[in-house]
Amino acid sequence: MTIFGAIGVAGSGLTVHRKWLDALSDNISNANTVTSTSEDAYRQRFVVAQEITTGEGGVQVKGVEFGSAEGRMVYDPDHPLADEGGYVKYPDVDMASQMSQLIMAQRGYQASAAVIDRAKQQYEAALQIGRM
Fold this sequence. Notes:
This protein has two helices and four strands; from the N terminus they run H-E-E-E-E-H. The chain is an alpha+beta fold. Helix 1 packs antiparallel against helix 2. The two termini are about 25 Å apart.
């Protein structure tokens, strides 16, 4: 693999991790979004990645899948969206899982950025050798 190949592979990792971070931030920010029982709850997003098997390789976002719209029913009779039984609907987002995934996505993004930085340093060192 060439230096440019390493930059390309790590760059594809940056893109996937950024998309994953975007999905996680959407999930976390909507974890307490209330809807009436007659409406769908916020559907959490899951980023699906796949390997790039051509060229230098890497990874790409295959798509985004959505969780269940059923949500979870919570008894809150004072809420303005409560139905006649006093229930509202919250999304089925597990904050502990989302925070764990957020840490993994951040670490992956940092690792890909570090690979790009090291490859850039190697490329610059190779250029300096040619100037001597």
